[in-house]
């Protein structure tokens, strides 16, 4: 595509090319606002238009690539060097103008900017940083900025990115080093890990400095995140859960995003022909929540997977799968059990557990009290004791799984997603 092509044509290409990246959530950043006439934009969600990509992912940010030219040849990527796609490119100033114009029309709450690698990693990173710099310094833009950073670029450039962006991210891409080597031959697992460690260091140092001096500069206040592609290589769910846990622990990531591999036009022969069911991505997000909010260890989440294949069941959620595998931990007495055991009960979310704990301070809970807090009392009954309910040897029944699994119609909806 020629440099003269209209902005709109290029926007069509570069927004479409960016949709394969799942990591666009804008949660958890510092509050900045232009209320009072200072600057432009706000990270708080007042009057924001949300839009969704055809596959249902949130794109309330202007989510684009600076360019889909790339000198790398990652097999799973539509923008790889050997791909036969129409190419386009924005200048940093064009991205700035687009962002401001979308922002002023209230279409977006900020910018999610990524890029193929053009000329060199450093050159590309410089351009990404330049977009953020112009927005922040020349326009006093206070909206949200998420910059994808390039692990092969100079650490100094990554450090500059963090000074302007709310969130920075580096895609780990594949769950295993062997998968990365095979499918992204130009990338290096140690380089990705080194860049993530560098960003973590900057984030921690900036936080420490701000505790001492309020005027110390912020560094990526919404932290760093990453994305893993699911189903492009042979990694099992247990492998993916293990990798995510290592990433959270080692690099203090805010989020790991899981993206079901999408077959791309002109796909390389080393890739699977079919995408994995989207339900697999959903189960991985659920397992991620178990580790982050429900107190499950990595090994416990992995125990919910099939011991031979390492795959999480698709017909039931990982919390229910764990409860069925460890029936001896149940039933849980809802009137006496500690919070951590209440969180293990299938069908009870964090909010329901908090409500139960508050309610049981004043009265003895009966099954009806619990039914008001869950969508499926049938799923929960075999696993709990209340003042008026105790399951009778239910946990020993061979057909327990069938009794508590969601109805087949609901399962089919999930598989179709
Ligand atoms: S570096 Fe790899 S994943 Fe990124 S745009 Fe280039 S080919 Fe695609």
From TrEMBL:
Keywords: Iron, Iron-sulfur, Metal-binding, S-adenosyl-L-methionine. PANTHER family: ENDONUCLEASE/EXONUCLEASE/PHOSPHATASE FAMILY DOMAIN-CONTAINING PROTEIN 1, TYPE II SECRETION SYSTEM PROTEIN K. This is DNA modification/repair radical SAM protein. SMART domains: Elp3 (SM00729). InterPro entries: Aldolase_TIM, DNA_rSAM_put, Elp3/MiaA/NifB-like_rSAM, Endo/Exo/Phosphatase_dom_1, rSAM, rSAM_sf, RuvA_2-like. It comes from Novosphingobium tardum. The keyword Nucleotide-binding does not apply. Pfam families: Radical_SAM. Its cofactor is [4Fe-4S] cluster. Residues 60-287 form the Elp3/MiaA/NifB-like radical SAM core domain.
């Amino acid at each position: 595509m020629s440099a003269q092509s209209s902005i709109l044509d290029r926007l069509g290409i570069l927004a479409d090319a960016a949709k394969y990246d799942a990591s666009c959530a804008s949660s958890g950043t510092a509050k900045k606002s232009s209320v009072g006439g200072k600057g432009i934009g706000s990270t708080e969600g007042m009057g924001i238009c949300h839009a969704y990509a055809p596959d249902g992912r949130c794109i309330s940010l202007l989510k684009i690539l600076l360019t889909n030219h790339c000198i790398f040849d990652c097999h799973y990527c539509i923008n790889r060097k050997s791909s036969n796609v129409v190419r386009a490119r924005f200048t940093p100033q064009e991205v700035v103008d687009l962002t401001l114009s979308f922002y002023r029309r209230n279409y977006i709450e900020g910018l999610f900017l990524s890029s193929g690698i053009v000329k060199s990693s450093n050159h590309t990173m410089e351009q990404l940083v330049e977009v953020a710099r112009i927005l922040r310094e020349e326009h006093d833009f206070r909206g949200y900025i998420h910059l994808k950073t390039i692990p092969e670029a100079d650490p100094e450039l990554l450090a500059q990115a963090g000074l302007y962006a709310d969130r920075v991210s580096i895609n780990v891409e594949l769950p295993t080093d062997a998968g990365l080597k095979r499918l992204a031959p130009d990338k290096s697992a140690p380089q990705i890990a080194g860049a993530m460690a560098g960003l973590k260091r900057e984030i921690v140092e900036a936080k420490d400095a701000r505790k001492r001096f309020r005027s110390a500069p912020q560094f990526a206040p919404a932290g760093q995140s990453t994305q893993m592609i699911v189903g492009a290589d042979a990694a099992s769910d247990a492998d993916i859960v293990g990798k995510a846990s290592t990433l959270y622990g080692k690099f203090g990531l805010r989020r790991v995003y899981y993206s079901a591999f999408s077959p791309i036009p002109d796909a390389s022969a080393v890739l699977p022909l079919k995408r994995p069911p989207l339900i697999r991505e959903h189960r991985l997000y659920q397992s991620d929540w178990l580790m982050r909010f429900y107190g499950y260890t990595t090994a416990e989440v992995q125990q919910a997977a099939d011991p031979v294949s390492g795959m999480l069941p698709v017909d039931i959620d990982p919390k229910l799968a764990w409860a069925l595998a460890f029936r001896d931990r149940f039933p849980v007495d809802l009137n006496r059990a500690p919070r951590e055991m209440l969180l293990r009960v299938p069908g009870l979310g964090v909010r329901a557990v908090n409500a139960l704990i508050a309610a049981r301070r004043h009265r003895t809970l009966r099954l009806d009290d619990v039914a008001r807090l869950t969508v499926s009392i049938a799923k929960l009954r075999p696993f709990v004791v209340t003042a008026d309910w105790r399951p009778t040897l239910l946990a020993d029944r061979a057909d327990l799984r069938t009794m508590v699994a969601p109805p087949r119609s609901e399962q089919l909806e999930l598989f179709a997603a």
